[in-house]
Amino acid sequence: MREATGGSVARWMEVYLEHLQARKLAANSLRAYRLDLDSVGGALAEVTGARVGELAMAAVTASQLRSAFARHAAARSASSVTRAWSTWNGFFGFLVVEGAVGGNPMQVVPKPRSAPSTPKPLQGEDTPERLLRLVAEGGRRARNPWPERDLAVLAVLLCTGVRSAELLDLTVASLAGRPGDRRLHVHGKGGKNRSIPIEGALDEVVGAYLSSRRVRFGERLPGAEPLFVDHRGEPLRRGGLQYLVRQSLRAAGISDRVQRGAMVHALRHTFATRLAEDGANAAEIAKLLGHASINSSQTYIDVTAREQRLSVRANRTHRVLGELAPREG
Q1: Domains of the chain (ranges plus CATH)?
Q2: Most buried of 28, 228, 231, 301, CB within 10 angstroms?
Q3: How far apart (Å, rounded) are the C-alpha atoms in residues 190 and 23?
C-alpha cells in the first residue's frame, strides 16, 4: 500500500476500506464505515474548498478536522457523531502506520460525551415465554403464515443473543455438530467469530423450521444457503426481521414491554440479562455475546444486582421492620 503515500483523502479512504474488507467485516459494518468516511470527508471538502479527490491527506490539519466535525454534528445525534469520530480515529491510526501522516489529529477533535448505556431487555418476568407460545400457536396474523420460521427466528434471538446483523448473516452451515452437541458459528462484529452452544429444544425448533422450508420450496439446503428466508424463499432482510419481531410482539399483546429505542436488540438484552440473573460472570457473558470489552458485559451484572436490591427493598416485611427498628439516640 505504500504507493498510496501522499495520495488524496479519497484515495486513502478506499485503501482503508480495502483494509477493512480484508478483515472480513460484516457488510453492515463496512457500509457504516463508508458512510462515516464519506460524510465527514464531504464536510472536510466544504471547509477546505477542495474536492475530496484533490485534497492531499498529508495536508489535512487538526483545525480543518474540528471544523468538519462541527458541520457533520450539526444535524446528527450524539451517538452518530461518536461513531463517526471512532471511524476517523481508526482511519488516522491506520494512516500513521502506513506513513501517510505524521500523527493522529483526532485526539484534539472533540466528541460528544456518551451517556452510559443500560440494558433494555423485554420487561415482565414471563414476557419471552409468552411471546414464544403465541408465535408457536400461529397467533401472528400474516398473509403467508409461517409459524415454524417465526418461532425459530425469535427462539434463536432469545436463546443465543445474536445481533440482528449476525442472525441475517447466518447460513445453513452455521449450525454445526451432532444432535446433543450442536453449536451455532457466528461471524460477529469487528470480524470476530464465536461459537454458541445450541440446546436440544432450540435445535428441535430450528430443525422443524428447516423441514417446513423444504416442504414449502421443495429444495435441498446447501450449507452456503442463508439460514433464514422470507415467504418467497429469499434471504431474510433487516426490514423483514424488524417487521416480524414488531408484529409478533403486537400479536402477543406485549408491545408496551419493549423499552424505547429497543426492538430486535431487546431480545439480545433479554438473553444477556437472564445469563446475569442465573449467575454467569462477565467473562462468560462477553464470550457468548461477542463483546470486545468485558466492561459491556459487566453492565448486565451491575443492573441485575441493582434490580435485585430494589426488589428486596420493596418487600413489605422490610417496611414493617423499618417501623420496628430502634432509633439511635
Answers
A1: 2-108 (1.10.150.130), 127-263 (1.10.443.10)
A2: 228
A3: 8
The yes-or-no answer on residue 231 being catalytic is no
Whether 65 contacts 109, CB under 8 Å? yes
3-state helix, strand, coil in the chain (%, to 5): 60, 5, 35
Cβ(38)–Cβ(88) below 8 Å:
no
Is 291 labeled as catalytic in the residue annotation?
A: yes
Q: Which three cell numbers stand for residue 121?
A: 431487555
Measure the CA–CA gap between 284 and 278, rounded to whole angstroms: 12
Which residue in the list 183, 189, 192, 231 is annotated as catalytic? 189
192 is catalytic: no
Listed residue (130, 132, 117) closest to 262, CA to CA: 117
**Average pLDDT along the chain, 329 residues, taken 10 residues at a time:** 64 94 80 93 93 88 94 87 93 93 91 72 88 92 91 95 93 91 87 88 94 90 92 94 94 88 86 85 86 75 62 54 61
